[in-house]
Amino acid sequence: MLSLFFMGRICCCQKKHRQINFVEVNISDLLNPDNLNLLNELENVTIVLTTQNNHGMAEQRRVFFELMEKGCKVPVVIKRSYEKEDAAHFQLYASTDYGALSIDGFGDGIWLTSNKVNPQIINSTSFGVLQATRQRISKTEYISCPSCGRTLFDLQETTQNIRSRTSHLKGIKIGIMGCIVNGPGEMADADYGYVGSGVGKITLYKGKEVVERSIDSSKAVDALIELIKKHGDWMEKN
Ligand code: SF4
User: Fold this and answer.
1) 201 alpha carbon – ligand 1 mean position (Å)
2) pTM of the predicted protein model
3) How many angstroms separate the alpha carbon of residue 196 from the centre of ligand 1?
4) What is the C-alpha to C-alpha distance for residues 24 and 14, in angstroms, rounded to an integer?
């Protein structure tokens, strides 16, 4: 990471890389109009936006408004550090802090750090928030109804079964719906649909199209996987 700061101002005479330079800044650096103007002029620079504020999300949101107001088009990586939180609190705070900005379209990258949390959890949380805010789809997404009196199969067990066999796939959405009355409408943007259509019977969808009706539920998960394979979205687990 390059420090381009000298006495609170961005210093453009530091040695820089030809391709990309990450400049770590916080709100006070960016409230200096000279710094903002200079950032706009520098080439191959990406801002890494940090905060120490207890209300860091609100502070970082303000920075984005400042950048927009000044017409600053420099890409911004949102960096947050969670050094006191355990894994559960890390996931909760990182999701709400980053997700609230990302869902409004702020930020070009995510950088979460913690000394207490396993790097795998940091990684999966980062990709999870990116997926939830539609910034980057990297794993299978499930749309499932809450189930009600119309559900004619064990929705939780079936969802678990489908998850265990398809969660390694990349970037597809599978709708798992309890009934044919409202299910197809509620999973309208799913790539594949698994919908209860009678006692022990399942109807499969590809997008909005019905592809197979009244499959015995004992064979329906296999049939769903065959359908995914047929459309080229299947890959074997590593
Ligand atoms: S999709 Fe059907 S089963 Fe699921 S909650 Fe809606 S009405 Fe009930």
Assistant:
1) 15
2) 0.73
3) 9
4) 14
Q: What is the pLDDT of residue 6?
A: 43
Mean pLDDT of 162-171: 93
Residue that the structure tokens 């799913």 belong to: 190
Relative to the CA of 179, which ligand 1 atom is closest?
Answer: 2
Q: Is the CB of 186 under 6 A from ligand 1?
A: yes
Residue boundaries of the structural domains of the chain: 5-132, 141-230
Q: φ, ψ for residue 116 (rounded to 5)?
A: -95, -20
pLDDT band of residue 44 (cuts 50, 70, 90) is: confident
Tens digit of pLDDT for each residue in 211-238? 999 999 999 999 999 999 999 999 998 7
CATH 3.30.413.10 fits 141-230, yes or no: yes
Protein residue closest via CA to atom 3 of ligand 1 = 178
pLDDT of residue 2: 47
User: HSE-up of 135 (CA within 13 Å, CB side)?
Assistant: 19
Neighbours of 125 (CB within 10 A): 23
For ligand 1, the distance from its centroid to the CA atom of residue 149, given in whole angstroms, is: 8
Class of domain 5-132 as given by CATH: alpha beta
